[in-house]
Design goal:
Its main location: membrane. The protein is 57% helix and 19% strand. With 376 residues, it is of the alpha+beta class.
Length: 376
């Protein structure tokens, strides 16, 4: 027993030494280099100021210089003044000094301005030594883009309600594809879960920022509001299906099979998280991919139903027109931003968002042709 107690004391003492050493090490890493604010927008030819702060213990002179991602000195996005800032240690060897850095826009683009401390040291925290800079051609185009953004947000938000009203007016859901409804509810539920997790869950946000140290959380409040509203409105339409005339309609085996596959993806992703193979961030990304996949197939059942019935009665054209407006304005905003920020790579380099928007608009065109031309 005495030997056990002696061993326990040794282990405890060792742990105490390690903890003390770790604390001392963390206390040494107090010199911080950081920008504020960490996001700024500049117009070509105009100047915007940001603040660089050095805070913490400093025992030797250091200098800070700057680099711009995806740029060279010959094709820089902004002119940085001063190009180098020198810091001299004060008598107390503790510095808290802020310097103004002027950025003059030279050409449109989106990039990160990085600050580098020289000589470098492992005891310097430079995790916030960057600014996400957007250089635009025109403030007017930024305003136009904002108006376009709110237009498609409102159009997409209201696009659910003409169908709800039509069902109520007719007291019938005959002509409305149950496959479309089931897939639509699944897609919006996956999208809402993704948005809520990245907007509200601190652990998921931390995982995202560890993977993207200079990134922004890609979900805004309006994304959360839209997705939750979409789940509510689609759910309300499904509730109507239980109370209004529906004929012989039911969810097809094909749609059930598709949803089963997606359910298996969710279950497998959950198991991977439970076993430590996946992060929760990966799990919710998989949910967002399900939403994208659903978007590719959800309109097909309704188009086929209209074709078989040779009629669009029961399928609200108001829903289609608002969805067409939302999709068109969404793509228009991407084109305006691509021109204003000279950022065409975000559209054509990774064309998933633009492609999905175009895909939805093309289906809306098909529904418009069915309603106004083929099956009048």
């Amino acid at each position: 027993m005495a030997a056990v107690c002696g061993t326990a004391k040794c282990v405890f003492g060792l742990l105490l030494i390690i903890a003390t050493s770790t604390t001392a090490q963390s206390n040494k890493t107090l010199l911080r280099l950081q920008f504020g604010p960490q996001d700024t927008t500049i117009i070509v030819g105009q100047t915007r100021n940001v603040t660089l702060r050095l805070h913490g213990p400093l025992s030797e002179p250091v200098a800070v210089n700057f680099t711009q991602t995806n740029a060279t000195n010959a094709n820089a996005y902004v002119q940085v003044a001063p190009s180098t800032i020198a810091f001299t240690p004060p008598p107390s060897n503790f510095i808290d000094r802020s310097e103004r850095v002027s950025l003059r826009g030279l050409r449109a683009g989106i990039f990160d301005l990085l600050a580098h401390l020289s000589p470098s040291s492992a005891l310097v925290d430079q995790s916030q030594a960057f600014v996400r800079v957007t250089v635009a051609k025109s403030w007017s185009l930024i305003s136009v883009s904002s108006v376009i953004g709110w237009t498609y947000f409102l159009a997409w938000t209201w696009s659910f309600w003409p169908q709800i009203w039509e069902n109520r007016t007719r007291a019938s859901v005959v002509g409305l594809s149950f496959d479309y409804l089931a897939l639509n509810l699944l897609g919006h539920t996956m999208y809402a879960a993704f948005n809520c997790a990245l907007f509200w869950n601190g652990s998921v946000q931390a995982e995202y920022l560890r993977r993207n140290p200079r990134g922004l959380i890609p979900v805004l409040a309006n994304d959360v509001a839209f997705s939750l509203h979409a789940v509510f409105a689609t759910g309300l339409i499904i509730v109507q299906c239980f109370f209004y005339e529906r004929g012989q309609q039911k969810v097809s085996y094909t749609a059930r099979a598709i949803m089963t596959v997606f359910a298996l993806v969710v279950m497998i992703s959950g198991v991977l998280v439970a076993t430590g193979t996946y992060l929760w961030l990966d799990f919710f990304y998989n949910l967002s991919y399900i939403k994208l996949a659903v978007t590719l197939v959800k309109y097909v059942p309704q188009a086929v139903l209209n074709y078989r019935r040779k009629s669009t009665i029961g399928w609200s054209i108001g829903n289609v027109l608002l969805d067409f407006t939302g999709g068109s304005f969404s793509m228009l905003q991407m084109l305006v931003n691509g021109y204003n920020y000279d950022d065409w790579d975000s559209i054509f380099g990774d064309g998933a968002k633009f492609g999905l928007g175009l895909f939805s608009v093309l289906f809306d065109v098909l529904f418009i042709v069915q309603h106004y031309i083929l099956y009048r």
